[in-house]
Amino acid sequence: MSAPMTTLHGFVPAWEIDANDHWNTAFYLRSFQYASERFAEEAGLPASPPQVLHTRFFRELRHQKTFTVESHRIDTAQSGYDALHLMRDQTTGKVAAASLEMRAGLPPVIEEFDATNYAPRSLPVGPDTPVDATEMLRDGRATVSHAGVLRPDDFDAEGRLLSHAIHMRVSEGNSHLWHHVDVTPDDFYGRGLGRAIVEHKLSRHGAAKPGMAIRQVSYFDNFGGKSVGLTHQVEDLTTGAVLSIIRTTTLVLDLKARKSVALPDDLIQRLNRA
Amino acid sequence: MFDRLKRTESAVVSYSGAVKRWECDRNGHMNVQFYVRAFQMASEVLATLVLGENPGTQSSDLRHYRFHGELFSGEAMHIQSSRIADGEFAGWVLHRMFKGARLSATAIERPAYPVEGLPACRPEALEKALPRGLSPTAERAGGLSDTLSASPVGVLRPSELDHHGAVQWNALTALCSNASHGFLEQIGLTADWVNTSNCNRMAVEMSIARHGLGAAGDTVAIRAGIADVASRSFTMRMEVVHGVTAAPLATVEQLCLVVDLESRKPVMVPEFVRTAAARYGMGS
Predict the structure, then answer these.
(1) Which residues, 6 or more positions from A105, have their beta carbon under 8 angstroms from its beta carbon?
(2) Could you give the ipTM of this predicted complex?
(3) Coil, helix or strand for B125?
(4) Among A210, A235, A238, whose Cβ lies nearest the Cβ of B163?
(5) Does residue A159 sit at the B interface (CB-CB below 8 Å)?
(6) Which of A145, A149, A171 is closest, CB to CB, to B54?
Protein backbone atom coordinates (compact mmCIF):
# COMPACT_ATOMS: atom_id res chain seq x y z
CA MET A 1 0.00 0.00 0.00
CA SER A 2 1.66 3.21 -1.09
CA ALA A 3 1.09 6.94 -0.82
CA PRO A 4 -1.22 8.40 1.80
CA MET A 5 -4.77 8.94 0.72
CA THR A 6 -7.30 11.50 1.80
CA THR A 7 -10.01 9.48 3.45
CA LEU A 8 -12.30 12.19 4.76
CA HIS A 9 -13.33 15.81 4.35
CA GLY A 10 -15.32 17.15 7.24
CA PHE A 11 -16.76 20.17 8.98
CA VAL A 12 -17.65 21.02 12.59
CA PRO A 13 -21.34 21.97 12.80
CA ALA A 14 -22.84 24.03 15.61
CA TRP A 15 -24.91 21.17 17.00
CA GLU A 16 -21.87 18.99 17.73
CA ILE A 17 -20.22 21.52 20.03
CA ASP A 18 -19.79 20.84 23.76
CA ALA A 19 -20.64 23.01 26.72
CA ASN A 20 -17.01 24.24 26.55
CA ASP A 21 -17.30 25.33 22.87
CA HIS A 22 -15.14 22.49 21.56
CA TRP A 23 -16.11 19.76 19.14
CA ASN A 24 -17.21 16.80 21.23
CA THR A 25 -14.69 13.95 21.31
CA ALA A 26 -17.30 11.51 20.01
CA PHE A 27 -17.28 13.24 16.64
CA TYR A 28 -13.50 13.01 16.25
CA LEU A 29 -13.98 9.27 16.71
CA ARG A 30 -16.81 9.17 14.21
CA SER A 31 -14.53 10.90 11.68
CA PHE A 32 -11.66 8.52 12.32
CA GLN A 33 -13.98 5.57 11.90
CA TYR A 34 -15.21 6.95 8.57
CA ALA A 35 -11.60 7.41 7.47
CA SER A 36 -10.60 3.99 8.72
CA GLU A 37 -13.40 2.27 6.85
CA ARG A 38 -12.63 4.13 3.65
CA PHE A 39 -8.96 3.14 4.00
CA ALA A 40 -9.88 -0.50 4.55
CA GLU A 41 -12.18 -0.48 1.58
CA GLU A 42 -9.39 0.86 -0.63
CA ALA A 43 -7.25 -2.08 0.51
CA GLY A 44 -9.95 -4.53 -0.51
CA LEU A 45 -11.10 -5.21 3.06
CA PRO A 46 -14.63 -4.88 4.45
CA ALA A 47 -15.54 -1.39 5.66
CA SER A 48 -15.67 -2.36 9.32
CA PRO A 49 -14.48 -0.65 12.50
CA PRO A 50 -10.90 -1.38 13.59
CA GLN A 51 -10.26 -3.53 16.65
CA VAL A 52 -8.38 -0.70 18.34
CA LEU A 53 -8.45 3.03 17.68
CA HIS A 54 -5.75 4.86 19.62
CA THR A 55 -6.03 8.62 19.33
CA ARG A 56 -4.03 11.61 20.45
CA PHE A 57 -5.46 15.12 20.49
CA PHE A 58 -3.22 18.08 19.70
CA ARG A 59 -5.45 21.07 18.90
CA GLU A 60 -9.13 21.65 19.39
CA LEU A 61 -11.44 22.02 16.46
CA ARG A 62 -14.17 24.57 16.92
CA HIS A 63 -17.40 25.51 15.25
CA GLN A 64 -17.24 25.81 11.44
CA LYS A 65 -13.70 24.46 11.14
CA THR A 66 -13.12 22.31 8.09
CA PHE A 67 -10.69 19.45 8.21
CA THR A 68 -9.32 16.56 6.20
CA VAL A 69 -8.12 13.14 7.27
CA GLU A 70 -5.16 11.57 5.48
CA SER A 71 -4.44 7.92 6.09
CA HIS A 72 -1.14 6.03 5.97
CA ARG A 73 -0.19 2.40 6.14
CA ILE A 74 2.57 2.22 8.75
CA ASP A 75 5.12 -0.35 9.87
CA THR A 76 3.34 -2.65 12.29
CA ALA A 77 6.54 -4.11 13.72
CA GLN A 78 7.79 -0.66 14.58
CA SER A 79 4.65 0.99 15.94
CA GLY A 80 2.41 -1.86 17.06
CA TYR A 81 -0.34 -0.47 14.86
CA ASP A 82 -1.24 -0.93 11.21
CA ALA A 83 -2.44 2.46 10.01
CA LEU A 84 -2.32 6.10 11.01
CA HIS A 85 -4.99 8.72 10.31
CA LEU A 86 -4.07 12.39 10.59
CA MET A 87 -6.82 14.92 11.02
CA ARG A 88 -5.65 18.30 9.76
CA ASP A 89 -7.22 21.70 10.16
CA GLN A 90 -7.83 22.52 6.52
CA THR A 91 -6.92 26.18 6.93
CA THR A 92 -3.63 25.81 8.79
CA GLY A 93 -2.65 22.30 7.77
CA LYS A 94 -1.78 21.56 11.39
CA VAL A 95 -2.63 18.21 12.90
CA ALA A 96 -5.61 18.49 15.27
CA ALA A 97 -5.70 14.79 16.16
CA ALA A 98 -4.04 11.56 15.10
CA SER A 99 -5.44 8.08 15.36
CA LEU A 100 -3.59 4.79 15.13
CA GLU A 101 -5.55 1.70 14.34
CA MET A 102 -5.13 -2.03 14.63
CA ARG A 103 -6.56 -3.86 11.64
CA ALA A 104 -5.51 -7.22 10.29
CA GLY A 105 -5.15 -7.86 6.58
CA LEU A 106 -3.87 -4.52 5.26
CA PRO A 107 -1.35 -4.90 2.40
CA PRO A 108 2.32 -4.47 3.30
CA VAL A 109 3.93 -1.07 3.61
CA ILE A 110 5.49 0.21 0.41
CA GLU A 111 6.23 3.80 1.28
CA GLU A 112 7.65 4.44 4.74
CA PHE A 113 5.92 7.05 6.84
CA ASP A 114 7.43 8.18 10.12
CA ALA A 115 4.68 7.94 12.71
CA THR A 116 6.93 8.67 15.68
CA ASN A 117 5.36 12.05 16.44
CA TYR A 118 1.97 10.43 16.82
CA ALA A 119 3.00 7.39 18.85
CA PRO A 120 1.13 6.63 22.09
CA ARG A 121 2.49 8.59 24.98
CA SER A 122 0.65 7.68 28.15
CA LEU A 123 -1.37 4.59 27.23
CA PRO A 124 0.11 1.24 26.20
CA VAL A 125 -0.05 0.01 22.62
CA GLY A 126 -2.68 -2.54 21.70
CA PRO A 127 -6.05 -3.74 22.95
CA ASP A 128 -6.92 -3.47 26.61
CA THR A 129 -7.98 -6.59 28.47
CA PRO A 130 -11.36 -6.72 30.21
CA VAL A 131 -11.27 -6.73 33.99
CA ASP A 132 -13.60 -8.34 36.48
CA ALA A 133 -14.61 -5.17 38.30
CA THR A 134 -16.62 -6.87 41.06
CA GLU A 135 -14.00 -6.29 43.72
CA MET A 136 -13.33 -2.71 42.67
CA LEU A 137 -17.04 -1.93 42.72
CA ARG A 138 -17.40 -3.50 46.14
CA ASP A 139 -14.57 -1.52 47.73
CA GLY A 140 -15.46 1.73 45.96
CA ARG A 141 -12.48 2.00 43.59
CA ALA A 142 -14.89 1.77 40.65
CA THR A 143 -18.44 2.91 40.04
CA VAL A 144 -21.24 2.26 37.58
CA SER A 145 -20.99 5.58 35.75
CA HIS A 146 -23.73 4.93 33.21
CA ALA A 147 -26.70 2.64 32.72
CA GLY A 148 -28.80 2.85 29.61
CA VAL A 149 -29.93 1.18 26.40
CA LEU A 150 -28.29 0.84 22.97
CA ARG A 151 -30.55 2.14 20.21
CA PRO A 152 -30.63 1.04 16.55
CA ASP A 153 -28.95 4.25 15.44
CA ASP A 154 -25.93 3.38 17.62
CA PHE A 155 -25.05 0.67 15.06
CA ASP A 156 -23.71 0.47 11.51
CA ALA A 157 -25.41 -1.31 8.62
CA GLU A 158 -23.89 -4.66 9.67
CA GLY A 159 -25.02 -4.36 13.28
CA ARG A 160 -21.69 -3.26 14.76
CA LEU A 161 -21.60 -0.64 17.47
CA LEU A 162 -20.31 2.69 16.17
CA SER A 163 -17.19 4.17 17.77
CA HIS A 164 -18.82 7.50 18.54
CA ALA A 165 -21.80 5.73 20.10
CA ILE A 166 -19.40 3.92 22.43
CA HIS A 167 -17.66 7.16 23.31
CA MET A 168 -21.01 8.85 23.97
CA ARG A 169 -21.29 6.54 27.01
CA VAL A 170 -18.09 8.12 28.31
CA SER A 171 -19.73 11.52 27.86
CA GLU A 172 -22.69 10.23 29.85
CA GLY A 173 -20.59 8.71 32.62
CA ASN A 174 -17.53 10.91 33.02
CA SER A 175 -19.09 13.37 35.48
CA HIS A 176 -20.49 10.49 37.52
CA LEU A 177 -17.01 9.05 38.00
CA TRP A 178 -15.72 12.40 39.25
CA HIS A 179 -18.76 12.74 41.53
CA HIS A 180 -18.01 9.28 42.87
CA VAL A 181 -14.78 10.63 44.37
CA ASP A 182 -16.50 13.84 45.51
CA VAL A 183 -14.87 16.00 42.88
CA THR A 184 -17.35 18.48 41.47
CA PRO A 185 -17.00 20.72 38.39
CA ASP A 186 -16.45 23.60 40.79
CA ASP A 187 -13.36 21.88 42.19
CA PHE A 188 -11.81 22.46 38.78
CA TYR A 189 -13.54 25.46 37.23
CA GLY A 190 -13.89 27.29 40.54
CA ARG A 191 -10.11 27.58 40.73
CA GLY A 192 -9.53 28.32 37.06
CA LEU A 193 -8.66 24.77 36.08
CA GLY A 194 -10.06 22.68 33.28
CA ARG A 195 -9.69 19.16 31.92
CA ALA A 196 -8.87 18.03 28.40
CA ILE A 197 -8.59 14.55 26.96
CA VAL A 198 -5.20 14.28 25.27
CA GLU A 199 -5.10 10.55 24.61
CA HIS A 200 -7.87 8.04 24.04
CA LYS A 201 -7.94 4.35 23.24
CA LEU A 202 -10.97 2.36 22.21
CA SER A 203 -10.71 -1.45 22.27
CA ARG A 204 -13.59 -3.57 21.00
CA HIS A 205 -14.56 -6.86 22.60
CA GLY A 206 -17.96 -8.62 22.54
CA ALA A 207 -20.77 -8.03 20.08
CA ALA A 208 -23.66 -5.78 20.99
CA LYS A 209 -27.14 -5.48 19.54
CA PRO A 210 -29.85 -2.83 19.40
CA GLY A 211 -32.02 -2.80 22.49
CA MET A 212 -29.28 -4.18 24.71
CA ALA A 213 -29.28 -2.69 28.20
CA ILE A 214 -25.75 -1.78 29.22
CA ARG A 215 -23.77 -0.50 32.13
CA GLN A 216 -20.43 1.25 32.17
CA VAL A 217 -17.97 0.55 34.96
CA SER A 218 -15.47 3.36 35.41
CA TYR A 219 -12.42 3.96 37.54
CA PHE A 220 -9.29 6.06 37.82
CA ASP A 221 -6.26 4.02 36.96
CA ASN A 222 -3.38 6.43 37.03
CA PHE A 223 -3.07 9.92 38.44
CA GLY A 224 -0.61 12.35 39.83
CA GLY A 225 1.52 14.91 38.07
CA LYS A 226 -0.44 16.78 35.44
CA SER A 227 -2.74 14.08 34.20
CA VAL A 228 -5.40 11.59 35.24
CA GLY A 229 -6.11 8.23 33.64
CA LEU A 230 -9.68 7.00 33.41
CA THR A 231 -10.99 3.63 32.27
CA HIS A 232 -14.56 2.96 31.15
CA GLN A 233 -15.65 -0.62 30.53
CA VAL A 234 -19.00 -1.02 28.77
CA GLU A 235 -20.80 -4.27 29.60
CA ASP A 236 -23.96 -6.10 28.64
CA LEU A 237 -26.08 -5.40 31.71
CA THR A 238 -27.69 -8.82 31.69
CA THR A 239 -24.66 -11.08 31.23
CA GLY A 240 -21.77 -8.86 32.25
CA ALA A 241 -19.99 -9.56 28.93
CA VAL A 242 -17.57 -6.77 28.08
CA LEU A 243 -18.39 -4.92 24.86
CA SER A 244 -15.65 -2.32 24.80
CA ILE A 245 -13.06 -0.52 26.85
CA ILE A 246 -12.17 3.13 26.58
CA ARG A 247 -9.12 4.49 28.34
CA THR A 248 -8.39 8.18 28.39
CA THR A 249 -5.65 10.42 29.65
CA THR A 250 -6.96 13.73 30.83
CA LEU A 251 -4.65 16.68 31.25
CA VAL A 252 -5.24 19.26 33.99
CA LEU A 253 -5.16 22.75 32.49
CA ASP A 254 -4.79 26.25 33.82
CA LEU A 255 -7.54 27.83 31.74
CA LYS A 256 -6.04 31.32 31.81
CA ALA A 257 -2.46 30.40 31.01
CA ARG A 258 -3.62 27.57 28.68
CA LYS A 259 -0.89 25.39 30.19
CA SER A 260 -0.95 22.03 31.87
CA VAL A 261 -0.53 22.15 35.62
CA ALA A 262 -0.24 19.66 38.45
CA LEU A 263 -3.40 18.15 39.90
CA PRO A 264 -4.02 19.96 43.21
CA ASP A 265 -3.11 17.94 46.32
CA ASP A 266 -6.62 17.92 47.77
CA LEU A 267 -7.95 16.35 44.58
CA ILE A 268 -5.18 13.76 44.62
CA GLN A 269 -6.23 12.89 48.16
CA ARG A 270 -9.83 12.41 47.08
CA LEU A 271 -8.75 10.21 44.20
CA ASN A 272 -6.55 8.23 46.57
CA ARG A 273 -9.49 7.57 48.88
CA ALA A 274 -11.38 5.78 46.10
CA MET B 1 -31.63 -9.21 39.79
CA PHE B 2 -30.56 -5.58 40.07
CA ASP B 3 -27.09 -6.38 41.45
CA ARG B 4 -25.27 -4.89 38.49
CA LEU B 5 -26.77 -1.46 39.15
CA LYS B 6 -25.98 1.01 41.88
CA ARG B 7 -28.64 1.03 44.54
CA THR B 8 -29.80 2.73 47.67
CA GLU B 9 -31.94 1.21 50.42
CA SER B 10 -35.15 2.05 48.59
CA ALA B 11 -34.18 2.42 44.92
CA VAL B 12 -31.92 1.25 42.10
CA VAL B 13 -30.09 3.65 39.82
CA SER B 14 -31.65 2.73 36.49
CA TYR B 15 -30.12 5.45 34.32
CA SER B 16 -27.28 7.91 34.57
CA GLY B 17 -26.12 10.41 32.02
CA ALA B 18 -25.21 13.99 31.30
CA VAL B 19 -26.84 16.84 29.42
CA LYS B 20 -25.29 17.53 26.04
CA ARG B 21 -25.32 21.00 24.57
CA TRP B 22 -27.23 19.85 21.51
CA GLU B 23 -30.00 18.58 23.76
CA CYS B 24 -30.67 22.05 25.12
CA ASP B 25 -33.19 24.67 24.11
CA ARG B 26 -32.46 28.26 23.25
CA ASN B 27 -32.68 29.07 26.96
CA GLY B 28 -30.00 26.51 27.82
CA HIS B 29 -32.40 24.01 29.44
CA MET B 30 -32.52 20.37 28.44
CA ASN B 31 -35.42 19.91 26.05
CA VAL B 32 -38.34 17.89 27.37
CA GLN B 33 -37.85 15.07 24.85
CA PHE B 34 -34.54 14.19 26.53
CA TYR B 35 -36.17 13.90 29.96
CA VAL B 36 -38.64 11.54 28.29
CA ARG B 37 -35.81 9.57 26.68
CA ALA B 38 -33.96 9.21 29.99
CA PHE B 39 -37.07 7.93 31.81
CA GLN B 40 -37.79 5.51 28.97
CA MET B 41 -34.25 4.15 29.12
CA ALA B 42 -34.62 3.71 32.89
CA SER B 43 -37.82 1.77 32.30
CA GLU B 44 -36.19 -0.47 29.68
CA VAL B 45 -33.17 -1.13 31.90
CA LEU B 46 -35.48 -2.40 34.65
CA ALA B 47 -37.64 -4.40 32.23
CA THR B 48 -34.56 -6.05 30.71
CA LEU B 49 -33.27 -7.17 34.09
CA VAL B 50 -36.65 -8.58 35.07
CA LEU B 51 -37.62 -10.19 31.77
CA GLY B 52 -34.19 -11.13 30.44
CA GLU B 53 -34.90 -9.24 27.23
CA ASN B 54 -35.80 -5.68 26.42
CA PRO B 55 -39.42 -5.03 25.40
CA GLY B 56 -38.33 -1.61 24.14
CA THR B 57 -40.84 1.19 24.13
CA GLN B 58 -43.52 -1.24 25.25
CA SER B 59 -42.06 -1.44 28.76
CA SER B 60 -44.96 0.83 29.74
CA ASP B 61 -48.06 2.30 28.16
CA LEU B 62 -48.71 5.17 30.55
CA ARG B 63 -46.30 7.51 32.25
CA HIS B 64 -46.91 10.68 34.24
CA TYR B 65 -44.13 13.27 34.61
CA ARG B 66 -43.55 16.22 36.89
CA PHE B 67 -40.77 18.75 36.38
CA HIS B 68 -39.16 20.27 39.46
CA GLY B 69 -35.84 21.82 38.46
CA GLU B 70 -34.19 22.49 35.13
CA LEU B 71 -31.12 20.71 33.86
CA PHE B 72 -28.48 22.65 31.96
CA SER B 73 -25.78 21.77 29.46
CA GLY B 74 -22.92 19.77 30.95
CA GLU B 75 -24.78 18.74 34.08
CA ALA B 76 -24.89 15.13 35.24
CA MET B 77 -28.10 13.45 36.30
CA HIS B 78 -29.27 10.02 37.35
CA ILE B 79 -32.58 8.24 37.89
CA GLN B 80 -33.50 6.26 40.99
CA SER B 81 -36.34 3.79 40.53
CA SER B 82 -38.58 2.05 43.07
CA ARG B 83 -41.82 0.14 43.30
CA ILE B 84 -44.89 1.96 44.54
CA ALA B 85 -46.24 -0.34 47.23
CA ASP B 86 -49.44 1.37 48.38
CA GLY B 87 -52.24 3.62 47.32
CA GLU B 88 -53.83 4.43 44.00
CA PHE B 89 -50.65 3.69 42.07
CA ALA B 90 -49.64 0.50 43.87
CA GLY B 91 -47.75 -1.76 41.46
CA TRP B 92 -46.51 1.18 39.38
CA VAL B 93 -42.89 2.30 39.20
CA LEU B 94 -41.57 5.56 40.58
CA HIS B 95 -38.60 7.14 38.79
CA ARG B 96 -36.88 10.15 40.33
CA MET B 97 -34.32 12.09 38.33
CA PHE B 98 -31.68 13.86 40.39
CA LYS B 99 -29.05 16.43 39.63
CA GLY B 100 -26.65 15.68 42.48
CA ALA B 101 -28.92 15.60 45.52
CA ARG B 102 -31.53 17.89 43.95
CA LEU B 103 -34.72 16.50 42.49
CA SER B 104 -35.02 17.53 38.86
CA ALA B 105 -38.02 15.55 37.57
CA THR B 106 -40.16 12.56 38.43
CA ALA B 107 -42.17 9.99 36.52
CA ILE B 108 -44.56 7.28 37.59
CA GLU B 109 -45.31 4.56 35.08
CA ARG B 110 -47.68 1.67 34.69
CA PRO B 111 -45.15 -1.11 33.97
CA ALA B 112 -45.60 -3.92 31.49
CA TYR B 113 -43.10 -6.01 33.47
CA PRO B 114 -43.21 -7.53 36.97
CA VAL B 115 -41.89 -5.21 39.66
CA GLU B 116 -41.95 -7.36 42.78
CA GLY B 117 -38.15 -7.46 42.92
CA LEU B 118 -37.78 -3.69 42.96
CA PRO B 119 -37.31 -2.04 46.34
CA ALA B 120 -40.41 -0.25 47.61
CA CYS B 121 -40.28 3.53 47.69
CA ARG B 122 -40.74 5.56 50.82
CA PRO B 123 -44.06 7.43 50.94
CA GLU B 124 -42.32 10.80 51.06
CA ALA B 125 -40.41 9.96 47.88
CA LEU B 126 -43.67 9.47 46.02
CA GLU B 127 -45.25 12.71 47.15
CA LYS B 128 -43.59 14.95 44.55
CA ALA B 129 -44.38 12.53 41.73
CA LEU B 130 -48.11 12.18 42.21
CA PRO B 131 -50.41 13.83 39.65
CA ARG B 132 -51.33 17.26 40.88
CA GLY B 133 -53.13 19.17 38.19
CA LEU B 134 -53.66 16.58 35.48
CA SER B 135 -56.52 14.14 35.52
CA PRO B 136 -55.85 10.66 34.19
CA THR B 137 -57.78 11.39 30.98
CA ALA B 138 -54.66 11.02 28.86
CA GLU B 139 -55.17 7.30 29.20
CA ARG B 140 -58.14 7.48 26.84
CA ALA B 141 -57.66 8.22 23.18
CA GLY B 142 -59.83 10.90 21.61
CA GLY B 143 -61.94 13.46 23.39
CA LEU B 144 -61.07 16.75 21.74
CA SER B 145 -63.66 18.59 19.69
CA ASP B 146 -64.34 17.14 16.26
CA THR B 147 -64.12 20.67 14.88
CA LEU B 148 -60.36 20.54 15.39
CA SER B 149 -58.34 19.25 12.51
CA ALA B 150 -55.18 17.23 12.97
CA SER B 151 -52.03 19.00 11.78
CA PRO B 152 -49.41 16.99 9.93
CA VAL B 153 -46.21 17.06 12.01
CA GLY B 154 -43.87 14.71 10.19
CA VAL B 155 -42.95 11.21 9.15
CA LEU B 156 -41.52 8.48 11.39
CA ARG B 157 -37.94 7.63 10.41
CA PRO B 158 -36.01 4.42 11.16
CA SER B 159 -33.73 6.30 13.56
CA GLU B 160 -36.76 7.18 15.68
CA LEU B 161 -37.76 3.57 16.25
CA ASP B 162 -36.64 1.07 18.86
CA HIS B 163 -35.21 -2.38 18.15
CA HIS B 164 -38.74 -3.80 17.74
CA GLY B 165 -39.67 -1.13 15.21
CA ALA B 166 -41.92 0.90 17.52
CA VAL B 167 -41.59 4.65 17.72
CA GLN B 168 -39.62 5.85 20.73
CA TRP B 169 -41.30 7.98 23.38
CA ASN B 170 -38.88 10.84 22.92
CA ALA B 171 -39.61 10.95 19.18
CA LEU B 172 -43.31 11.30 19.93
CA THR B 173 -42.53 14.09 22.36
CA ALA B 174 -40.50 15.93 19.74
CA LEU B 175 -43.43 15.72 17.32
CA CYS B 176 -45.72 17.10 20.02
CA SER B 177 -43.43 20.12 20.34
CA ASN B 178 -44.14 20.87 16.67
CA ALA B 179 -47.86 20.72 17.32
CA SER B 180 -47.93 22.61 20.61
CA HIS B 181 -45.89 25.56 19.36
CA GLY B 182 -48.13 25.89 16.32
CA PHE B 183 -51.33 25.59 18.32
CA LEU B 184 -50.32 28.14 20.94
CA GLU B 185 -49.28 30.58 18.25
CA GLN B 186 -52.65 30.07 16.59
CA ILE B 187 -54.60 30.90 19.78
CA GLY B 188 -52.58 34.01 20.56
CA LEU B 189 -49.67 32.84 22.70
CA THR B 190 -47.25 34.31 20.19
CA ALA B 191 -43.64 35.39 20.44
CA ASP B 192 -44.90 38.98 20.33
CA TRP B 193 -47.21 38.32 23.27
CA VAL B 194 -44.31 36.80 25.22
CA ASN B 195 -42.13 39.82 24.50
CA THR B 196 -44.87 42.33 25.35
CA SER B 197 -46.20 40.64 28.48
CA ASN B 198 -42.83 39.23 29.64
CA CYS B 199 -44.73 36.06 30.49
CA ASN B 200 -44.49 32.60 29.01
CA ARG B 201 -45.85 29.14 29.58
CA MET B 202 -43.93 26.55 31.54
CA ALA B 203 -44.86 22.87 31.49
CA VAL B 204 -44.77 21.47 35.01
CA GLU B 205 -46.59 18.22 34.54
CA MET B 206 -47.15 15.85 31.61
CA SER B 207 -48.83 12.53 30.85
CA ILE B 208 -48.11 10.29 27.89
CA ALA B 209 -50.32 7.34 27.03
CA ARG B 210 -49.35 5.00 24.20
CA HIS B 211 -52.11 3.55 22.05
CA GLY B 212 -50.11 2.24 19.08
CA LEU B 213 -46.58 1.36 17.99
CA GLY B 214 -46.11 3.33 14.75
CA ALA B 215 -43.82 2.20 11.95
CA ALA B 216 -41.07 3.69 9.80
CA GLY B 217 -42.59 5.78 7.04
CA ASP B 218 -45.85 6.49 8.86
CA THR B 219 -47.00 10.06 8.53
CA VAL B 220 -48.10 11.52 11.84
CA ALA B 221 -50.70 14.15 12.61
CA ILE B 222 -51.59 15.79 15.91
CA ARG B 223 -54.83 17.34 17.02
CA ALA B 224 -54.15 19.87 19.77
CA GLY B 225 -56.60 21.59 22.07
CA ILE B 226 -57.14 23.00 25.53
CA ALA B 227 -58.52 20.35 27.84
CA ASP B 228 -58.85 22.39 31.01
CA VAL B 229 -58.26 25.88 32.36
CA ALA B 230 -57.71 26.93 35.96
CA SER B 231 -56.86 30.38 37.27
CA ARG B 232 -53.10 30.03 36.85
CA SER B 233 -52.70 26.97 34.70
CA PHE B 234 -54.11 25.32 31.63
CA THR B 235 -53.94 21.81 30.21
CA MET B 236 -53.04 21.26 26.62
CA ARG B 237 -54.04 17.95 25.10
CA MET B 238 -52.47 16.47 22.00
CA GLU B 239 -53.88 13.47 20.20
CA VAL B 240 -51.19 11.85 18.09
CA VAL B 241 -52.61 9.83 15.22
CA HIS B 242 -51.57 8.12 12.01
CA GLY B 243 -51.63 10.77 9.29
CA VAL B 244 -53.79 8.75 6.91
CA THR B 245 -55.83 6.27 8.93
CA ALA B 246 -56.18 8.49 12.03
CA ALA B 247 -55.44 5.40 14.16
CA PRO B 248 -54.44 6.67 17.61
CA LEU B 249 -50.75 6.48 18.44
CA ALA B 250 -50.54 8.41 21.71
CA THR B 251 -52.21 11.03 23.83
CA VAL B 252 -50.12 13.66 25.53
CA GLU B 253 -51.35 16.13 28.13
CA GLN B 254 -49.28 18.99 29.45
CA LEU B 255 -50.15 21.13 32.43
CA CYS B 256 -48.72 24.59 31.82
CA LEU B 257 -48.35 27.51 34.17
CA VAL B 258 -48.22 31.00 32.79
CA VAL B 259 -45.17 32.49 34.46
CA ASP B 260 -43.89 36.02 34.83
CA LEU B 261 -40.37 35.73 33.44
CA GLU B 262 -38.97 38.30 35.81
CA SER B 263 -40.48 37.18 39.12
CA ARG B 264 -40.62 33.52 37.96
CA LYS B 265 -44.04 33.30 39.58
CA PRO B 266 -47.30 32.08 38.03
CA VAL B 267 -49.80 34.69 36.87
CA MET B 268 -53.43 34.53 35.71
CA VAL B 269 -54.05 32.60 32.51
CA PRO B 270 -54.68 35.13 29.73
CA GLU B 271 -58.19 35.49 28.39
CA PHE B 272 -57.33 34.25 24.90
CA VAL B 273 -56.48 30.83 26.38
CA ARG B 274 -59.95 30.69 27.99
CA THR B 275 -61.52 31.64 24.68
CA ALA B 276 -59.58 28.89 22.95
CA ALA B 277 -60.70 26.40 25.60
CA ALA B 278 -64.31 27.30 24.89
CA ARG B 279 -63.79 26.91 21.17
CA TYR B 280 -61.41 23.97 21.06
CA GLY B 281 -61.94 22.25 24.38
CA MET B 282 -62.93 18.75 25.33
CA GLY B 283 -66.20 17.67 23.75
CA SER B 284 -67.25 21.20 22.84
Answers:
(1) A43, A45
(2) 0.92
(3) helix
(4) A210
(5) no
(6) A149
